[in-house]
Design a protein that fits this description.
Blueprint lengths: L3 E12 L4 H8 L12 H14 L9 E5 L5 H13 L6 H5 L4 H11 L5 E4 L5 H14 L5 E8 L3 H10 L4 E10 L7 E3 L4 E2 L2 H10 L7 E4 L5 H11 L3 E2 L2 H5 L5 H12 L5 E6 L5 E2 L1
Parallel strand pairs: 2-3, 2-4, 8-9, 8-10
Antiparallel strand pairs: 1-5, 1-6, 4-5, 7-11, 10-11
Helix pairs in contact: 1-2, 2-5, 8-9
């Protein structure tokens, strides 16, 4: 597989239900634009992507691939409450902002880019599916540069899961700036595979030729029993446990990979996960 070269990475982990004014204050470190008609999901997208890009100038045709587990959650809840609980019409901008694609619009406008924007969700593995699509688009020459991110607000389901598994539920916004050009890159995505079941993944790990990864990370979909078998197949790779260290969000995969790129230059990570249908990703 051709590598996707990483030219920027950022992982933001935010306290659940944090005051939006504090998010806006953090965003002002990267841009002076005032986002008045925004919401938490839009602000999380902007903050993560702006941190990823830094001071780099993006080509006008840079694309945005925004992946999410649940999308614009809090705004949607507010609008549904207005319609069904208060029996009133929702506020116009509130209704518009229930569309998760609005976040990509705000981001493209702020960065001054005019490429395609694609919003993608897939139970537990949205970021992995987004990378698959982006790799295909790069291979076909459809794109030569793109921002890909995973963004999610804390949901009640995640808070409950966190309590059961000893994690803290957080807002997450993880982003990578990917290009076909190798020069100046700070890392690369070299593998992006899907497996029908855990047995197929373990077999591939054991038969794979080449040096092993330095570190491994498990997504939230990996059960304890599967983790034990995978740890054996992974060999000496050290565990990079971002779920325990930084907290859990629907976009934990994006955040884990971006955090690894920033924290461990020159090293290799295998990130393993499982979707809601039992299929595995690497």
């Amino acid at each position: 597989m051709e590598a996707l070269y990483i030219h920027g990475a950022s992982a933001y982990f935010g306290e659940a239900h944090r005051d939006m004014a504090l998010l806006k204050e953090e965003i002002r470190r990267h841009t002076q634009e005032n986002f008045r008609r925004s919401n938490r999901f839009i602000l999380l997208s902007l903050l993560g992507a702006r941190q990823c890009v830094g001071r780099q100038a993006l080509a006008a045709d840079t694309a945005i691939y925004l992946t999410t587990e649940r999308g614009n959650l809090s705004e949607t809840v507010t609008v549904l409450d207005e319609i069904y609980a208060s029996h009133s019409l929702p506020k116009p901008f509130g209704f518009i902002n229930t569309m998760s694609g609005t976040a990509a619009f705000y981001l493209a406008q702020n960065l001054g880019i005019q490429g395609r924007s694609i919003i993608l969700s897939s139970r537990r593995t949205g970021f992995e599916r987004g990378l698959e699509l982006l790799r295909t688009d790069f291979a076909l020459g459809v794109e030569t540069g793109a921002l890909i991110g995973g963004v999610d607000e804390v949901s009640p389901e995640e808070e409950e899961l966190g309590k059961r598994r000893g994690w803290t539920a957080v807002d997450g916004s993880g982003w990578l700036y990917l290009r076909t050009e190798r020069q100046g890159a700070c890392g690369a995505v070299r593998e992006n595979r899907a497996f029908a079941d855990g047995r197929s993944l373990v077999q591939w790990l054991k038969q794979r030729q080449g040096p092993p990864a330095d570190m491994a990370a498990f997504g939230a979909g990996i059960a304890a029993a599967d983790a034990a078998a995978l740890r054996d197949a992974l060999g000496p790779a050290a565990l990079f446990n971002t779920l325990q260290e930084c907290g859990y969000s629907g976009s934990a995969t994006a955040c884990a990979i971006a955090l690894f790129v920033r924290r461990f230059p020159g090293r290799t990570l295998w990130h393993l996960n499982q979707d809601g249908r039992g299929r595995f990703t690497l």
